[in-house]
Write a structure and sequence with these properties.
By secondary structure, the protein is an alpha/beta fold. The protein has helices at about 10-20, 35-40, 45-50, 55-75, 130-135, 150-160, 180-190, 240-245, 280-295, 340-345, 375-385, 390-395, 405-415, and strands spanning about 1-5, 25-30, 80-85, 90, 95, 100-105, 105-110, 115, 140-145, 165-170, 195-200, 200-205, 210-215, 220-225, 225-230, 235, 250, 255, 265-270, 310, 315-320, 330-335, 355-360, 365-370. The strands form seven sheets. A five-stranded parallel β-sheet has the order 3-2-1-7-19, covered by helices on one side. Strands 20-21-24-23-22 form a five-stranded antiparallel β-sheet, sandwiched between helices. The protein has a four-stranded parallel β-sheet with strand order 11-10-9-15. It is globular and about 60 Å long.
């Protein structure tokens, strides 16, 4: 068997490695560097900056280079052929790239996404997240358009670096897709750190050094030395020849079924290009689902249970249902604060909170939301509990080591159970 994978981000290269481990020949086509957006312009460089007290481009590049080398080593497999170039799909079994035509039994599209922008006058005066990562100097005044994950992470990073930061968010609250309780608490925590956040703010235009916006019928202008456009990302549909290949898509992304197969049998799409949850770990899991379908294998991957994290200070993390998504049925909730946790207080990280949501009738845990130090790590215990359908009573009886931050989750579970 032979497959073609277009795109070498986490979804693409991890699927290639798994296919080769199963004895499948792979042609991996990559227009950009190995690791895709996540490694080169997203997750990894952003988290590298999170760990710094000032921008250090040399160190950031060292981190990227080290991880790229690791991926390159993984791709040094006799069953994997790496092709550098832009791919063009010719048909259900053929792709053109780098002046060659490649044939395979199946094709997986994993070309990711690109930064989105508001269609407003002066948008060209803004920079995107990739450019933001390459700033050599800290701007005195930073204005961030967008209060989602990307916008808040950069706001938090550059506030720590010393910038005066203003965030303008169109929706009534930050992190629109997150639990409202969590989002409100994060907004308050960021405000305490000196980040000005304006919600229900509609950005109208940008001029040199100024962002013009309206709220409640009034007009405002925010001065800025640097303006970050962080209004999300859009699927990278541009050059794949989807129309001629007969692959159904919308502006939101390529249409796929539960097996990640497109409207053309034998052609699959995974990750950001499908317009769903634009997370690296989702792309990797979708790659496994697509490969399993190609191989005729079943799996138990549950795409309704996906942990997500925001690497602000403090961190925020979530898995399962928000309280707003539970409208229509009865629930139990339990909350616990970091300030009551021994390790959090001892380590000076007492700013935090956890909420657990369970179905009242079954007492199954269906959602967990955490704000605080190491939330991005603690959330995975919660993900296991949600995925396995654990009840409040069973989870309450799990012994946790003391003193640890994970006890915050345990406390919230016990509070919901009582």
């Amino acid at each position: 068997m032979k497959i073609i994978i277009i795109g070498a981000g986490p979804g693409g290269y991890e699927t290639a490695a798994l296919a080769a481990a199963r004895g499948i020949e792979v042609v991996l086509i990559s227009e950009g560097p190995l690791g895709g957006t996540c490694l080169n312009e997203g997750c990894i460089p952003t988290k590298t900056l999170c760990a710094m007290d000032a921008p250090d481009q040399a160190h950031k590049q060292e981190v990227i280079a080290q991880l790229q080398a690791g991926i390159a080593q993984l791709m040094r497999n006799k069953l994997i052929t790496l092709v550098e170039g832009r791919a063009r799909i010719l048909g259900p079994r053929s792709v053109e790239a780098a002046g060659e035509k490649f044939e395979a039994d199946a094709i997986i599209i994993a070309t990711g996404s690109v930064s989105a922008s508001l269609p407003i006058p002066g948008a060209e005066l803004c920079i995107d997240s990739a450019a933001m990562l390459n700033l050599e100097e800290v701007p005195q005044r930073l204005c961030v358009i967008g209060g989602g994950v990307i916008g808040l992470e950069f706001a938090s990073i550059y506030r720590k670096f010393g910038s005066e930061v203003t965030v303008l968010e169109f929706c009534p609250g930050v992190l629109p897709r997150f639990d409202t309780d969590l989002a409100k608490r994060l907004k308050a925590s960021l405000a305490k750190r000196g980040i000005a956040i304006e919600t229900s703010a509609r950005v109208e235009s940008v001029t040199e050094g100024l962002v013009h916006w309206t709220k409640g019928g009034k007009e405002y202008s925010t001065p800025a030395d640097c303006i970050l456009m962080a209004v999300g990302r859009r699927p990278n549909l541009g050059t794949l020849n989807l129309d001629e290949a007969g692959i159904e898509y919308t502006p939101r992304g390529i249409v796929v079924d539960s097996s990640m197969q497109t409207s053309v049998p034998g052609i699959y799409a995974i990750g950001d290009i499908t317009g769903g949850l634009m997370l690296a770990h989702v792309a990797s899991a979708q790659g496994r689902r697509a490969l399993n379908h190609i191989c005729g294998l079943a799996d138990s991957i549950d795409f309704s249970v996906v942990p997500a994290a925001v690497f602000t200070v403090p961190e925020a993390a979530t898995v399962g249902k928000s309280e707003e998504e539970c409208a229509g049925f009865e629930i139990l909730t339990g909350k616990a604060n970091y300030r009551a946790n021994g390790k959090a207080v001892a380590s000076g990280e007492a700013d935090g909170w956890c909420k657990v949501i369970a179905e009242k009738e079954s007492r199954r845990i269906i959602g967990v939301h955490i704000l605080g130090a190491h939330a991005s790590d603690i959330i995975h215990e919660a993900a296991v509990l949600v995925a396995l359908g654990a009840t409040l009573d069973a989870a309450s009886d799990i012994i946790h080591a003391h003193p640890t931050l994970s006890e915050v989750l345990h406390s919230a579970i016990r509070n919901a159970a009582s």
